[in-house]
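Checked the freezer inventory, then went back to the computational side. Two predictions to log before the end of the day. The first one is the construct we discussed on Monday; recording sequence and tokens without edits.
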Amino acid sequence: MPKATSAIEKSLAILERIAAERRAVTLTFLAEATGMPKQTVHRVLQQLEEAGTVQRSVRRDSFVLGHRMRDLALSTLRAAAATLPIRAELERLAGEVGESANLGILNGYSVRYLERVEYAWRLRFTINPNDELPAHAVAIGKLLLAYLPPRLRQELLRKGRFERFTDWTVTDPAALEREFERIVADGYSLNNQEYHIGLLGAAVPVRNRDGEIIAGLAIQGVMPRTSLQSLVSHLPSMHEAAGRIAEFLEDQAPVGADSNDRSAAAAG
């Protein structure tokens, strides 16, 4: 186990160890399991107990998770269930087009994938939720960069270092800007082996009710099973799926969110 250094890391290490055991654990056990001194474990346990995330078991010399952790676990399960409609929409789209489908947002110079459904092909390129890939080399990333406010996009192009992954990767800022102009004009983005040889993709925007782009929806496949022309033929289905996902995301907007929050999030 990596050595915990910050107070938060120490707290999480102890909570994770207690949760993993599924029974009461002693201070001595936690010190040995986490590699922390007993004094440190004792101090952290006191703080967690005061916060209600840890409590003493029937045997007063051992500890179990507290009521706040149990409440948090239930809330986490409910939050995960709340995203099921998005996954169901991606599954429907992947089944219709016969390729993998994913939803992502811009995070600086990277794309963070929020949800992903793999189509059941033996030969495929795997991406997991929360994975990040370079924005300039994938369809969703280029799409979201293209729709940034011009001043912000120009700043990113000026300051960015765009790595070349294949012979098809566009790394020149001027060439990227021309690509972004084409994307805005067409309303969709393509990935032609720019991140991985043989990997193709197409992406469309997910817009809120105000027309702002809040995410990107993409399908992805590998050659020779698919082609760019084949992916483009599925754009109508992708736009329909993006509309349904947008409706769900609007209904699940964060408490207190406003347009300023969305603009800040889009900028990464």
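The second is the one RB wanted added to the comparison set:
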Amino acid sequence: MTASVITLQAADHPIKSVTIFHSDTGTAEITRTFPVGLQSGKNVVNIRGISSCIGPDSLRLHVPSAPNVRVSDICCNTERIASKRDALVAERTLRQREYDRLVDTAARLHVGREYYELLDTLAQRMHSVSQVLHTLDRQILELERKLVVPVESRKGDGSTVITATIVAEGECEVVLQLTYLVTGARWELRYDLHARTSNGRPSPDVSFHQYAKITQSTGEDWKDTEITLSASNSQSLCGLYVPSLETLQASPKRANPQSTLPRRMSPTHMQPLARGCPLVPPPGASLFHLQATASPKPEAGTEPRTSAQTTPDDSAYVHVSLQGPSIEPVVHAILSSEPVRQHHAAPPAYLAPVHDHGPSPSVFVHSLVYRVGQGEAVCLPSDGLAHTVSIAALQLRADFEYVCVPRKSTTVFTQARITNTSEHDMLPGPISVFMDDSFVARTTLQHVGVNETFECVLGIDARIKVSSQQRSHGEGAHNCTDAAQTTVYTSVITLMNGHDVDVAHLVIRDALPLGDEREKTDVTLRKPVRLAQAKGGDDVALALDTDVGPFNSVKVRWMETKNGSAGKEYGMYEWMCGIRAGTKLALEAEWVVTESISVETTDAP
């Protein structure tokens, strides 16, 4: 019995849904439906105009709600670029031979009665062949350019034909559902943060807008389609496995003879050996998650570096290490797998890699999906351009504070602490900050989980002035037997509120220098008086000459950071100030640096 042949054009049938995965290959899953009438017996269905970026192994065709219909065979045929180029080159060779023969024939003509008529005919034919050669050269050049482009970056076209053999027990009207994966579709998130001021102060209500920037060059126009953005990697669907367990081996005890552990802080002394940490991000770094980051450890045998960004009296720090070496703990034993690998600090749990002999698929926040257009049908052409679509608009609450790090810069930043109260995680992406509808800054948002808090700098406040001065003087020896040099350092930070309103939360961050056991240098904190005895996180209220109240009040505490690299043991502290409109405050810190001096003694002659 002869099979019934049915030919369908994909462009005549809308795409039902598209799911774009968050992968490096730009993978998307396409679902199409085709209503067809089947004859009893074997039916051959040809679907033309499918993307050339299709993954042949991803084809799935089934007939829902039709138990008497089954798909017995399915395949796809894509005309590849190299094959198209080879065909055009072969055709050009034939056309070039034809042109050469016409030229040779014209040269052999003898002048006679029909000479000019034959010559006109040959000239017309040569002109026609020349135009064909020109067209072929242009087409071959375009294909050559495409071949130079990496496969994952090429634009697709509708050159794929899918052929399916379907067997029906009787004549019926069915709907074929075709699903396949294509490359050439990518998406990334970006955000807009809108804040406003009320009576001279930032309002705690902020608007957070999420957008998706989608680019697709699959060769298929997505018309009236439901588009879903998935945070999972499509490769995780075809490569998951349970990692194998490897044998552990205990390595010999090792220790770094040049490393020195810090001494803990006594009630009145600061004597740890640790690294100094910058408190503000370098130029161009993200303004989110503002926290201390360790400076590199100096090589063995080198002197600890002195910070180049001190207050005016840089010479006062000749004997004080502001950028000390990092702690190198003693290693007693290491349990490692065979072969022994180099050990690194573990990443966050949600980014922890799976160590095995094979590739480990990414399953990062695999359940997170976004509906483009809030579930409505969307049109997205295959033009390779970035199309920005709205995902969601959130109303969040923010706590505002003013932050300054005078040791690095006297600039005062307006910073917001915002809690993600939405139902989904916030994925990394660029964010634009607007204050009263005016653009302020652009930075990057890191991954933020539900109910987690992130920090965002909203701009610079020029009406709060901060100045810093530092001075030092030596102290005489208590007796003639003292073999130490003592220097007293005083740091004074002056604040001026130029606003017409009071400022309740002004944070000034600073750091004490650290003692160095190798250099026999100790640091003793004198002011603020009760800060040395305070525990990490405890607020120490300071008495002021003016009235103490909700404003013109000062507290000081050891800093708390998320990674634990700063705080009491590392000399990082912060002032928390409330200052009335048009008034000044002076913050004073004092410490003593004691440096041991080697004294040689000899016997009298």
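For RB: Residues 230 and 369 are 4 Å apart (CA to CA). Confidence is low (pLDDT under 50) at residues 257-366, 546-550, 601-605. Let me know if you want it refolded.
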